[in-house]
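Sequence in, structure out. Go.
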Amino acid sequence: MYTTPEKFQAGHTELHHSHPNPFEPDLIKNRANLIQQWSDLIQYQSSLNQALREVQLCRARVEQCYVKIEQHCRGLDKYKQDLQRQVAQHQGSVKSLNDSQGQAQIDGWMP
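Output:
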């Protein structure tokens, strides 16, 4: 696992006290910037993890929607087939009726 900013800072503080450095003010400033950047990265990682969880929840909801859409489409296909069957039956009835009328005309029952 990574070193925490506090351990990072403590280790470098001990090092600087034992060996004075003319660049120490810049090093302290740079170290403080690095510690802040480390903290910012940890917060950013946490934000990204939260966003990932939200995306995963949305994906699950979208998948549920797709399942419902597929179910509705199957229902519509069945309804369409039922209507086509009823239309075919009615067309058969109309044809029979037309044939009966044609035969009645031939037999002289209808003008």
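Check: The longest helix spans residues 24-107. The chain is about 90% helix and 0% strand.
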